[in-house]
């Protein structure tokens, strides 16, 4: 079997080279922290990568945050990572910090005060001195600040709260809200009154009034049955 493997390697030099390289890589594979080593174990390092230091043949992470290497800009703090470091933002309550959270502030930001060991938001709306001065304003506390909103039915205008102007309501006519069925009743009443008056005059025997009465009945009946008469009466009743 071994002779067959040797023959295969002799016949295929590329495969032999690949196998030898794989074996060499396994033998000389160093830990991630090592740039040079004598073996694959962590205590077999001979030289370390950047961010690490050699101690008893072992590469140990350098805490840059404890040295001058970990200098971060204002209002950011140093956070150590494996082989390096990061600069992270301070809490909004801080002006400069030594770590994350409102308990690691060097100084409290505006709108915050030191309460115990933490910089906490000041509720300006509970302080009569800092609260909104306008009688028509409502104080709303926000994180690190506050705002003044106009009360209901008021709006901001030129920096002050003024009462909203209510839209003027146009005066309605006497019959503006009258319904269609009510119009029909009024039409019938109107015709009834006119016909009764003419009938009374005709009953006196005056031929002139009798003729007028008969003509009025015929005319009103025609208008009653026509769309034109209906429109005229509608306009009359609605005062248009």
TrEMBL record:
Entry's Gene Ontology molecular function annotations: calcium ion binding
PROSITE patterns: ASX_HYDROXYL, EGF_CA
UniProt-listed InterPro entries: EGF (IPR000742), EGF-like_Ca-bd_dom (IPR001881), EGF-type_Asp/Asn_hydroxyl_site (IPR000152), EGF_Ca-bd_CS (IPR018097), Furin_repeat (IPR006212), Growth_fac_rcpt_cys_sf (IPR009030), Nephronectin_domain (IPR052235), NOTCH1_EGF-like (IPR049883)
Keyword Membrane included in the entry's annotation: yes
Occurrences of domain EGF-like (ranges): 29-60, 86-120, 124-162
Pfam families: EGF_CA
Superkingdom, natural source: Eukaryota
Keywords: Disulfide bond, EGF-like domain, Membrane, Repeat, Signal, Transmembrane, Transmembrane helix
Domain (EGF-like calcium-binding) ranges: 61-106, 121-162
SUPFAM superfamilies from the UniProt entry: EGF/Laminin, Growth factor receptor domain
Annotated signal peptide: 1-29
Sequence intervals crossing the membrane: 208-226
Family: Belongs to the CRELD family.
Name of the featured protein: Cysteine-rich with EGF-like domain protein 1
């Amino acid at each position: 079997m071994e002779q067959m493997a040797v023959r295969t390697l002799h016949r295929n030099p590329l495969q032999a080279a690949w196998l030898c390289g794989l074996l060499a890589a396994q033998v000389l594979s160093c830990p991630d922290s090592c740039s040079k080593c004598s073996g694959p174990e962590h205590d077999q390092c001979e030289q370390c990568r950047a961010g690490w230091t050699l101690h008893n043949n072992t590469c140990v992470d350098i805490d840059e945050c404890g040295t001058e290497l970990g200098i971060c800009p204002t209002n950011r703090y140093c956070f150590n990572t494996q082989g390096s470091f990061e600069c992270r933002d301070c809490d909004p309550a801080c002006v400069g910090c030594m770590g994350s959270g409102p308990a690691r502030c060097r100084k409290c930001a505006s709108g915050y005060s030191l309460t115990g060991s933490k910089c906490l938001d000041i509720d300006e709306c509970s302080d009569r001195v800092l609260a909104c001065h306008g009688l028509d304003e409502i104080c709303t506390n926000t994180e690190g600040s506050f705002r003044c909103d106009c009360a209901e039915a008021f709006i901001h205008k030129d920096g002050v709260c003024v009462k909203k102007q209510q839209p003027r309501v146009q005066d309605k006519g006497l019959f503006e809200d009258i319904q269609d069925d009510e119009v029909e009743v009024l039409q019938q009443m109107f015709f009834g009154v006119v016909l009764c008056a003419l009938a009374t005059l005709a009953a006196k025997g005056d031929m002139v009034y009798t003729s007028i009465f008969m003509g009025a009945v015929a005319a009103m009946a025609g208008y009653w049955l026509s769309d034109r008469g209906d429109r005229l009466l509608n306009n009359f009743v609605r005062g248009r």
